[in-house]
Amino acid sequence: RDLSVQLGITRPTLRETLQRLARDGWLDIRHGRQTRVKNFWQEGNIAVLAAIARHGRRLPDNFIPDLLAVRKLLAPAYTRMAIENNPEGVIELLQGYMTLEDMPHSYSQADLDLHRCLAIASKNPVFTMILNGLVELYLAMGERYFEMPAARRHAKKFYSDLEQYAQQRDSNAAERMTTIVMAETIMMWQAVNTAKNNL
């Protein structure tokens, strides 16, 4: 009652909002106990991660490297599965990548499209849902990353090599190569941040 008065909203509206926050993983509501705000870094879920990615203007310094480390674990698996399940679809997408406009936003969008295509082709929808929850952050982060010409060259080689492995139906080689490229991407991202911090 007091909180609804303080916020100037009706009690049903407040109750519904609190229930939504609890469903999304921000609050712990139990009858007979005080409502508790969760420590989302330790108790959060995919919905919390997606919300942080969409609205987090002040992300901790290690947030992006941590996300890239997760991608390094996931991307090789969904890349291998995609080439096993749908090499033609991977080849078709990548054929247009050799003529990408040499601009950060073009590479950022293309890279997201590729990873979503690979995740969908893997036929494991959890990969796709994780990526879908991070779209806005992925694009914003990608634009910063692809400001470096070296990052665009690195990505273009990855796309070319991946198309070759897809044509050869060599899913294991694609998986190994993706692991290496994702690790190199983390190092290049750290180089971007170091350069920006030194300006």
Description:
- The protein is elongated.
- It is mainly α and 199 residues long.
- It has a two-stranded antiparallel sheet.
- Helices cover 75% and strands 2% of the residues.
Assembly context of the chains:
single chain
> What is the topology, as strand order, of the major beta sheet?
1-2
Kindly state the percentage of residues in helix.
over 70%
Structural class: mainly alpha
Global morphology: elongated
Q: Tell me the span between the first and last alpha carbons.
A: 51 Å
Task: Outline the low-pLDDT stretches.
Answer: none
Biggest β-sheet description: 2 strands, antiparallel
State the order of secondary-structure elements, H for helix, E for strand. Answer: HHEEHHHHHHHHH
Rg from Cα:
21 Å
Beta fraction = under 5%
Write the layout of secondary structure elements.
Blueprint (H helix, E strand, L loop, with lengths): L1 H6 L3 H13 L3 E2 L7 E2 L2 H4 L2 H10 L7 H23 L1 H8 L9 H18 L3 H8 L2 H11 L3 H20 L2 H28 L1
Jot down its keywords.
two-stranded antiparallel sheet; mainly alpha
Summarize the structure.
Helices cover 75% and strands 2% of the residues.
